[in-house]
Structures are given as C-alpha cells and as structure tokens.
Amino acid sequence: MDKSSNKGISRRDALKRMGLLVAGAAALGMPTALTSCSNGKKKRIILYFTATGNSLYIARQLSDENTELLSIPQMVKQGRHDFEAEEIGIVYPIYGHMPPNMVRNFIKQARIKANYKFAILTYGMLDFNAAELWDGISRKAGTKFDYINTLVMVDNWLPNFDMNEQMKMDKHIPEQVEKIKADLDRQRKWIKPATDDDRRNHDGFMFFSRLDPDVGFLKRSEKYFRVTDACIGCGVCTEVCPRGNYELTSTGVKTEGDCDFCFACIQNCPQKAIQFRSLPDDPLLARGEVNPNARYRNEHVSLWSIKESNRQ
Ligand SMILES: Cc1cc2nc3c(=O)[nH]c(=O)nc-3n(C[C@H](O)[C@H](O)[C@H](O)COP(=O)(O)O)c2cc1C
Ligand code: SF4
Ligand code: SF4
Fold this sequence. Notes:
The structure is a single chain. The protein is an alpha/beta fold. The protein has helices at residues 11-17, 20-27, 54-61, 72-78, 101-109, 130-140, 163-168, 173-185, 196-209, 221-224, 236-240, 264-268, 303-310; strands spanning 44-48, 67-71, 82-84, 87-93, 111-113, 116-123, 147-152, 190-191, 219-220, 225-227, 246-249, 252-255, 258-259, 274-276. The structure holds flavin mononucleotide and iron/sulfur cluster (2 copies).
C-alpha cells in the first residue's frame, strides 16, 4: 500500500511539508507567512483536508520547495485563521458535491491574503456543480477564489463502491494533475462551470439524502459506526479522526461526536473492525455497504501522514 509513500523525504522534510514545523514556529512567535521566497520564486500555501489520502496526494503534487502544506484539521486545532502568501490553494474531497463540514466552517473563519487563490476538489465519480458550490460558499465567507477545478480519483464512498474495484480503475490522474499544474503556473482565472443538469442532479441528491445544504454531511459517529470483535486496540482510529471521536477504553474502543463522515476511521482501521451500523431508515446507508472487506488508502500516502494530518 505504502509503496512510494515518503520515499526520499526525511522526517524533517515531511514534517515541514505538512506544516508541522511551521506550526512549531508559530508557537514560538516566529513569522510564518512570507509573501515571497529568498530564491525569488512564488511562495505558495496549500491547505488540505483528507481522509484516505487522495487530497493530500494532490496537494503534494501541486507543491514545490516553496510550498507550505497545511492540514486544515491541524489549523482548526491550533485556532490558526490567518494565512498570507503570493498564492494560496485549498484541496479537499467533495461530499455530496459539497465541502466537508470542517472545511466549510474553516473558510468562514479564515482570513486568506494572496494575489492568487485556487481550490482543487477531488472526487470519485460525479462532481456536478461542486466548483460552483464552493465558489458560492467561499464568496459568502468573504474569500473569492480565482480558480476552482475538480479532479477525479478513487471513489472512497463505501456504501456504493467496492474499494478493490475502484483501485483497479485508471482515472488518468497524472494527466489531470499536469493540466492543473499548467493552469496554476500561469495563474489562470477559471471556475469549472456547472450546467442546469448538474444543478438539478445536485438538488435531486439533496432531496434524496435529506442533508441540510447549509451544513452538508454532519452526522454523529456513534449512530453510524460500530467496532467489532476484530478490534485489536491498535489506536489507529483515535489518531486518524479529524474530530477526535475515538477513544480506547478499558471496555474497548468507543466512538462519539459530531462527524464529517469522512471515513478516515472506517477506511484506515487495519483490522476492518469498524463497520457501518444497520440503518434501514437512512436513505444513504439503507443498503449497507458494497464490500465490508475492502478498504482504501491512497497508495502514495502513508498511514503516518494521515495520522499527522488529522490527529486531535
Ligand atoms: C461522505 C462522502 C461523500 C462523497 N460524495 C461524493 C460525491 O458527491 N461525488 C463524488 O464523485 N465523490 C464523492 N465522494 C468520494 C470522495 O470525494 C473522493 O473519493 C475523494 O477523492 C476522497 O478524498 P480523500 O482521500 O482526500 O479523503 C464522497 C466521499 C465521502 C466519504
Ligand atoms: S483502528 Fe480498528 S483495530 Fe485499531 S483500535 Fe481502532 S477499531 Fe480497533
Ligand atoms: S468518526 Fe470517522 S467518519 Fe466521522 S469524522 Fe471521525 S474519522 Fe471521519
């Protein structure tokens, strides 16, 4: 799984690229937001949210030595809202074509100062009006993005997709990344347009799913997930959840709390001991999941990186 995860990157470099050394500098009161670099190249900040590594992988692909990669759950944890650089990007997975709830709340509080702002939305099969939705949400929050595009990857939506089948599909990711890189290099101003059909399909999904459009996916983890006897108490779930919803107790692993429904817990449990509860009345989970024995994490992203991104 971790074939090329952190190859060739020292622990210090990895920490730096994930914004953790920067966080340390912030704690010491050192300046963290330079607008340009000593080598004259543009300084870029990329903020990301990830559960199974797709969005982190893309954030890394769009980074160079002048880029700070910052995990949104870590920024939320630190209460950091101010960001300044020549270019600032955000990379997140779409959930029902919308941003994760944590990303939505983050952008409401963030003060983003940059000449060029871009957002890359990863998805698995249908993005519909996702770019337009982000444009609306971010504008309402006071930040206008110059470039919003989407990028198709493995679909980690367990209720409908078998992860083993998804992993076999070639979604031409390098080609998509190259196109986006070329756009960013020339600071292209473009927002992926939505058609009336896209909007209708999204509205249909919202009606069917009964989600609140102002909130998106915000569930309760105790209602949706259960831990089976296969659990070995390894503690991975306590570290990969961006909400810190899992706890190792003397009577086993317990989960409770507001939940982005990101699937970091269920996908990254090495024992596949986290399963969906039976929810016959829930429109999205009524039929359970396609393959409870198949789980996914992006092949270029280590479990260590997911933990460092999300640990609360
Ligand atoms: C709650 C949830 C909702 C999702 N909704 C969509 C969707 O509307 N359209 C889509 O194409 N993919 C959807 N996906 C798939 C993810 O957007 C996609 O796999 C993404 O690349 C995962 O990124 P990550 O690995 O960084 O977490 C959804 C996944 C989850 C967990
Ligand atoms: S990740 Fe899975 S096996 Fe490990 S403690 Fe959590 S539920 Fe148990
Ligand atoms: S409980 Fe699971 S699905 Fe919910 S936020 Fe935590 S990791 Fe994501």
